[in-house]
Amino acid sequence: MRLINTETLQLEFYAGGSRRYAILSHVWGNDEVTFQDITSADANEALHLDHYKKLRESCKMARSLKLDYLWVDTCCIDKSSSAELSEAINSMFRWYAESVVCIAFLEDVPPLESDEEKKKAFYDSRWFTRGWTLQELIAPGKVIFYGQDWQRLGTRAELKEDIKLVTGINVELLAGTHHMTEMIQRQLGELSVAEKMCWAAGRITTRPEDIAYCLLGIFDINMPLLYGEGKIKTFKRLQEEIIKSTDDESIYAWRQPRYRVEGKTYWSLLASCPSAFNIDHAAKDTNGLVLIPKKSKYLSLRSATSTSMTNRGLELELSLTPFPVDKSGTIFLAFLNCEFRRGQTSINPAILLQRAAWDTDSYFVRVRPDIIALSMMNSIILPDELMNMIRGGQSEVLQEAIPRQIFVPHTTPDLRYLKGVIFRPAIKGLKEGSKLTLRVRSRSPTWQYFVDARRGLSNTPESYEINFDLAPGPSLGSLKEPMVLGVLELQAVSRGGIGAIASQPVPDDASLLFTVVCF
């Protein structure tokens, strides 16, 4: 860690110990002092260069607080070294937490006369919209705000109510005066993932990937930096690391506005960016009160379960119950182990999942992420749009939710046809000794007939096939309802006895006719 000597404006290397320092929090401008500038410039010359003004004033403030050293992100990191940049970003929360004081410079808050004007300028400052300033606000034990003219605006503790209105961060956290990383991490650990994500939801960063990297310290996560992979992939990696470190299921309680959901059917369990946790998109109770997911106060039957990750998706256990009046039997409510609190009442959130595979009952995708259902005891509250589908008024009694191990992919694979359909005439479940047999009496042209030539033509199991290469069905985009692709007429023949199909005895050589339609 490099520190600036506030007297000489020269960098000094600091390897740990008890050195006391101030730390600067600010919004970067177009002409900041870089590591290359400060290591190559003459100290006397630097004292008079225009673009050194912010640095000079910061050092002056640090000296007024009786601190000989200052850390500034623009010039204390050699950003030409990817290894050093990675180490600094992964260490930055700790550096802010261990500082004596954080000097927060709000360059766009001018000196104003009235308190009302001052408060509005403070609320509107760009400092509250940037991603990196979130940890710079939370991590230090003490933050002092300065305006454009470097006049003191107040401390974080003094302005906690105003800051809460702008950021949504609770005043208990803002009033803290800790000076140890472990203390602030312990306080943050008591809050839900969704609540902390909500703080970052409206913030922006210059580099897309930094919207995830600026949250590493907030979630006590370390991970490699991969600039160039894009915001969505980086934020997905962050969520995967968070899931490894906690069983807090509020990470799945994100929500999208309806206009973003239209045109996309299936979703994963992971959000694409912090804006999915935006308070404007949050669940609301019947009175319109915004509900933020909190950690559950109660023991869950699934507290000991674990979540595993693959390159394809998440395998986890969730409590599922069938969605009322869903005739397909594929849509479920998945209850999350977190809660909304309204007074003394706890409300559990649930998201909508749909079973998305014909050959397994454990493969699910998320659907309608614009909806978060609210559950109180054994009743569910849904938006009016879905309530109109459910008989019984404003709530519906549900079946008991049952824990199930499921898999949810990160991305939905492309929809593809089966290669075809094969049918071998046979009757399963017959009693021993039954002489009931099944024959194909007639077939539509789409069915092809095959015999196994290796076993001869007599008494050989036959098979019938519809090959979709030779008899293609409709395109997936145009398939709106079941369609007949082929027809088989079957004959069940009983000789000397009866099988399991007929309800009355069948004379020898009698036939039962069935029609099998392939959809």
Folded structure, characterized:
This protein has three domains: 2-190, no CATH class; 249-409, no CATH class; 420-518, no CATH class. It is built from 14 helices and 24 strands. It has helices at 35-40, 43-46, 53-64, 82-97, 115-123, 132-138, 160-167, 171-174, 181-189, 193-200, 210-213, 231-245, 258-261, 384-387, and strands spanning 2-5, 11-13, 22-25, 69-71, 101-105, 143-146, 152-155, 294-295, 308-309, 313-322, 331-335, 338-342, 345-355, 364-366, 373-376, 379-381, 396-397, 402-409, 420-423, 436-443, 448-451, 462-467, 486-494, 510-518. A hairpin with a 5-residue loop joins β6 and β7 (152-155).
List keywords for this structure.
24 strands; 7-stranded mixed β-sheet; 519 residues; 21% helix; alpha+beta; 11-stranded antiparallel β-sheet
Mean pLDDT: 85
Largest sheet: 11 strands, antiparallel
Q: Structural class given helices, strands, pairing?
A: alpha+beta
Radius of gyration: 33 Å
Q: What's the shape?
A: elongated
What percentage of amino acids are in beta strands? 15-25%
Compute the separation of the termini in Å: 68 Å
List segments where confidence is low: pLDDT < 50 over at least 5 consecutive residues: 497-516
Q: How many DSSP E strands?
A: 24
Count of discrete domains: 3
Domain Heterokaryon incompatibility: 21-107
Protein name: Heterokaryon incompatibility domain-containing protein
InterPro entries: HET
Give a topology summary.
Elements: E1 2-5, E2 11-13, E3 22-25, H1 35-40, H2 43-46, H3 53-64, E4 69-71, H4 82-97, E5 101-105, H5 115-123, H6 132-138, E6 143-146, E7 152-155, H7 160-167, H8 171-174, H9 181-189, H10 193-200, H11 210-213, H12 231-245, H13 258-261, E8 294-295, E9 308-309, E10 313-322, E11 331-335, E12 338-342, E13 345-355, E14 364-366, E15 373-376, E16 379-381, H14 384-387, E17 396-397, E18 402-409, E19 420-423, E20 436-443, E21 448-451, E22 462-467, E23 486-494, E24 510-518
Parallel strand pairs: 3-4, 3-5, 5-6
Antiparallel strand pairs: 1-2, 1-4, 6-7, 8-12, 9-10, 10-11, 10-18, 11-13, 12-13, 13-14, 13-15, 15-16, 16-17, 19-22, 20-23, 21-22, 23-24
